Amino acid sequence: MKWRLFLVAVAAAGVTVLVGWVGVRPISAAVWRAAWAIPVAVAVHAVQLAMSGRAWRLQLGKAAPGQARVALLRWLREAINSMLPVAQIGGGIATVRMLAQSGMTLTHATAATTLDVMMESLAMAPPVLVALALLGAGQSTALIWGFATLLLGLGGFFAAQRLGLFRLAERFGLPGLHDALAELHANPGPLLGTGVWHLLAWLLGTVETWVALLAMGADASWRSAFILETLGMVARAVGFAVPGALGVQEAGFVVVGQLVGIPPDAAIAVSMIKRVRELLVGLPGLIVWQAHEGRRLLRRARSA
């Protein structure tokens, strides 16, 4: 926990330095001009969450609860990951447990969620490759290396599943996890469907970025918005160990923005709008999650 708090402190200091370098006044002015885009960003993200919920449900299979329930759990998963210092895994653990409480086996819920997370990350690849092609190799060498590092990590994660390294987790109360993963890998239809739904969700994020740029008066095309959104999210993914990718996302947006002619104040303002959207979506999610946990503990106390 101490190292996570240290990362938060370092990231917060980085954001402060970055904002101070660009200028508080132009950033705040841009965010204020784009305030009307925040409800649009929330609505767009709600659709993204529904798409991601649909993708997850394909992996959960016949034992899955209804689509509305899975979408709710997907919302809670993201809220926990984005609002708490849990290295992007706490939300998955919490919602897997909630699935198990609803009757699904813990092993199957863990296997399905593991594959869903992997496919969500892999679905970034097509838009990222298109964005890098639009930029040209000469402008995106560092980004290419960053993306290659991310793909290498995903490749290792995939290999660990195929080679049986997840058998080690079976010692911690997840018997049959490797076999459950192998069964899901052997069914390419749901895997493909999961990837397609996640790809559509990633692409929809361009709308959020383009509307934010439009609202603040920036001269940005769909091409610029697509590149900024896609490669900015790669920067966030690379900084997964930092809670909320605080500072990493902002720096990524500034770097990518410079490549497509978006000034630093506008790039940081877009990131700030996304932060506000995260708060508006994430805080209610934490409240719902805690209410659920409170009711569960109360039922347990009454039955004791």
Provide an overview of this structure:
The chain has 304 residues and is mainly alpha-helical. It has one domain (27-303). It is built from 13 helices and no strands. It has helices at 2-22, 24-33, 37-60, 67-83, 90-101, 106-122, 125-135, 141-162, 177-185, 188-215, 222-238, 248-259, 264-303. Helix 4 (67-83) packs antiparallel against helix 5 and helix 7 packs across helix 11 (222-238).
| Sheet with the most strands, sense and barrel status | none
What structural class do the secondary elements suggest?
mainly alpha
Tally of alpha and pi helices: 13
Order of helices and strands: HHHHHHHHHHHHH
Structural domain tally: 1
The portion of residues forming beta strands comes to under 5%
Specify the overall morphology: globular
Low-confidence stretches: 1-12
**End-to-end CA span:** 32 Å
In round numbers, the mean pLDDT is 83
Please provide a brief summary of the model:
The chain has helices spanning 2-22, 24-33, 37-60, 67-83, 90-101, 106-122, 125-135, 141-162, 177-185, 188-215, 222-238, 248-259, 264-303. The chain is mostly helical.
